[in-house]
Amino acid sequence: MASGVGRCINFGGCTKADTKEQIPMASPDAICPECGKPLIADSSRGSILIVVLGLGCLALVVVGAAFGIRSLLGRGSPSPGPVANATPASAAAPASPRAAAPSVALLRLCGSNTIGSQLGPELVKAYLLKNGATQVTQQELAADEHLVTATLNGGAVSVSVAAHGSATAFEGLRRGACDVGMASRGIKRQEMAHLASLGDMTSRASEHVIGLDGIAVIVNPSNPVDALTVDQLRNIYAGRVGNWKQVGGRASQISVEARDDKSGTYDTFSSLVLGKQKLVRGAKRFEDSRALSDTVSGQPNAIGFIGLPYVGNSKALKVASGGLAIAPNPLTVGRETYPLTRRLYLYTASNPSNAQVRRFIDFVQSPDGQRTVERAGFVATVVGETPVAVKNGSVPPGAPAEYARIVRSSDQLPFNFYFKTGSPALDNKAYVDVGRLVAIVSTKREAGRKVVLVGFADSTGTHDANRALSIARAESVKRELISQGVNVKEATGFGDALPIRDNATEDGRQKNRRVEIFLAR
Description:
Distance between the termini: 79 Å
Helix content: 25-40%
Shape: globular
Low-confidence stretches: 43-100, 385-393
Structural class: alpha/beta
Number of strands: 22
Largest sheet: 11 strands, mixed
C-alpha cells in the first residue's frame, strides 16, 4: 500500500515528469514507472489543516519573492517575468521535514551532457551571483541532473539542469519541459520542423553559439609521429590499426587510452572521429583527464585524447581532415580550422515567455559568462580578442603568393567568418564575431588599423567559379563591416585553395567556405 506520493524530475525525457503527475510511492526509494528514475517525495499532500493554515504564509513568501526577483532582474518591467511562469521547486527537489516555502523556478535547462554536466551549472551559478544572489548551492538529484538553488532578495529561487544528450534539448523544448536547450551539435531539419511553433530555430533569436570544444590527440614526447589524419585516428581507435609502423612510427603496438563513457570529451571524440564505429576492445578508460594525460606522457607507445587544458607533458599531434594538418590550440579552435572542433549551442524560443531566458543568454555571451566558459575548459567566443601575429614561416605550404604577402604583412585574428549552409549570409556566430571585430578596432591600441578580408570556397564547381564565390563572400563581409563603421582596406579571395577540412563531407565543405580576417600593419 502506498505511503505517499512523489514526482519524477526527468524533464524532457519522461511524460510523467513533464506533466508533473503525482505517482504513488510505496517506499522512499520508489522509481518512476515510465523512465525508471528515482522519484522525489511530494509534500503537497499533507493534512488539510496544514495546507489551509500554510496557504496564506506561502502566498506572502511567493509574492514577496516575486516582487524582489522582478525588482532585481527586471526592475520596472510590466511583464509577469519568471514568477508568473514559474513552478514550485517541490516538483524537482526532495522534501524535508522542515521544508521552507517552495522556491521560484527561474529557468529549466535540458540537453547536452557535454554542456550540462559541468558548464551548465557553473553558468547558472555565475548568472545568479552576478544578479546579487546569495547562498548559491548545487545538488545532484540523479545522474546528470542538477538543481541550483539560491536566495534572491529574500526569496528562494532554483534552476534545474538535466543533461541527458543533445536530442533531449529539442524534445524538452517541444514538450515545454525546459526553457533553454543545450546542444553540442546544430539542430536537425526534423527537429526544426517539430519546433516551428517556437519560431525559426536557426535564427539569431533562437540559436546561440556560446563556445567551442576542441580535443587534442596526445602521444609520448618521444613518439616520432607528429600528425595523423582523422581516418587514421578512426582506424586506431576502432582497432583496425594496431601498430605505430602502419602510420609512420616505430614498429611497436599502440596502447589505446580513452576517457570514460560519461565524459563530454569522449562524447566529442566519438562524434568527430569514431562516428558509427565502436571503440576498440581493450582500450584503457579514464575518468580523470589529468590521469589520462600523465599515463600517455609516461608510456612511449600510448595514444590518448584530452581537452586542450590537459595536454601537460604529452605531445599534441597535428590532425588533418582532407586538408592541412593543423595543431590544436585556442587559436585554431577559435578559428574552427582544427578538425576536432565543434560548436556548443543554447537554443531558445524566438520570443520566450519567460523573461529570464533572454537575460540568461545575454549573460552567457557577455565577458563574465565567457570567462566561465573558459574556466570549464572550452574556448570562449568573446574572451581573448587580442590579434595574433602570423610570423614569417607560418605561411601554409602551397599558399598563393598574394596570400603569403597578406599573412606576412598583417596580424591574423583568432576567429574566421562562416556562412549559413547553402547561403551567402553570415551564420549566427559570425554576427557575434562582427561585434568582436568592431570592439577590437575600437580600442585605443588598434584604432586606425585597416581590415583585410580573405575568402575561400569548397572544391565544388570550377576553379574560376570558386574564386568568384570566395571574393563575393569577402565582399559581403566587407559591406557588413563598413555598415558598422569598420575601415576595410582589402577584400579578396583564393577560391578552393588551402582547404582546412575534407571536401568530401558536408561539414568539411562548410568549414572550407570561410573568410579569414587580418589587421594590416
